[in-house]
């Protein structure tokens, strides 16, 4: 086990989780354009605070007057993302030093570095393309992919290369992998729902505008590439298209719940994985409850942010389970 690499990977995973939750907080509080430029904020490395700074910023960016309560959220998110970049650089430095127990992590470390640089570009495009939904969703998925790869590195660098899971756990790998695929698809649907401001398109539950099968329109709802230059803050789709996105996310939630519940039941049948199965059920029930409360309570910010955070924890737990079911290799 490489203790230095393992500790760095654990630290980076924790920071990545905080960045994801903070990113959700920024997005859900409509602060994604709190700073109209990148990487600074109104041309500075910090957000305008003093009266003369705000006046200068308003003069330089008349189309986007300073909103202090949004600007500081966006910049704190960027600062924390910068810390994560430094941690990833440190991971690569350690992984690429010529010590015999590191080469197996070099490709993964390099992939993480490439991804976080691309993620930074997506963060820039999120601002410069004015919350273009495809870019917003890609930024969300990029952050979760980065989180997943860092978690995988943390888990793999913390076990012996000779680790061999028991036969019952190895047999569950295809089930866990299927659960991961379904969860990722549902997270993508959730990202598309958020990027298109469709979270409250159906204001009632379990029906949608009083119907169990609302009128839908998939063509516009799932058109990925849209016009560049439009300000997408607040969304531009009509109600029918937003209802379609929201309803698809609801159906996806049912499918995800059933698939992951099946995985949890299989885990609980094996004594060695009963706790893992129980935790999966707990996270599933929590996530479904938060999703329902988002609708019933009209998307309260703490609840909506928690919904994003628990999605990341579900992803982390499934990666941990897949790691436990995977043998170490020299």
Automatic annotation (TrEMBL):
Domain of life: Bacteria
GO molecular function: metal ion binding; oxidoreductase activity
A GO CC term assigned to this protein in UniProt: membrane
Transmembrane portions of the chain: 76-95, 107-125, 131-155, 175-195, 247-267, 279-299, 305-322
GO biological process, any: heme A biosynthetic process
Keywords, alphabetical: Cell membrane, Disulfide bond, Heme biosynthesis, Iron, Membrane, Metal-binding, Oxidoreductase, Transmembrane, Transmembrane helix
Subcellular localization(s) per the UniProt record: Membrane
Signal sequence extent: none
Metabolic or biological pathway, per its Swiss-Prot or TrEMBL entry: Porphyrin-containing compound metabolism
Major site of localization recorded for this protein: membrane
Topology class, membrane: Multi-pass membrane protein
Presence of the UniProt keyword Metal-binding in the record: yes
Record's protein name: COX15/CtaA family protein
Natural source organism: Elongatibacter sediminis
Lineage of the species this protein comes from: Bacteria, Pseudomonadati, Pseudomonadota, Gammaproteobacteria, Chromatiales
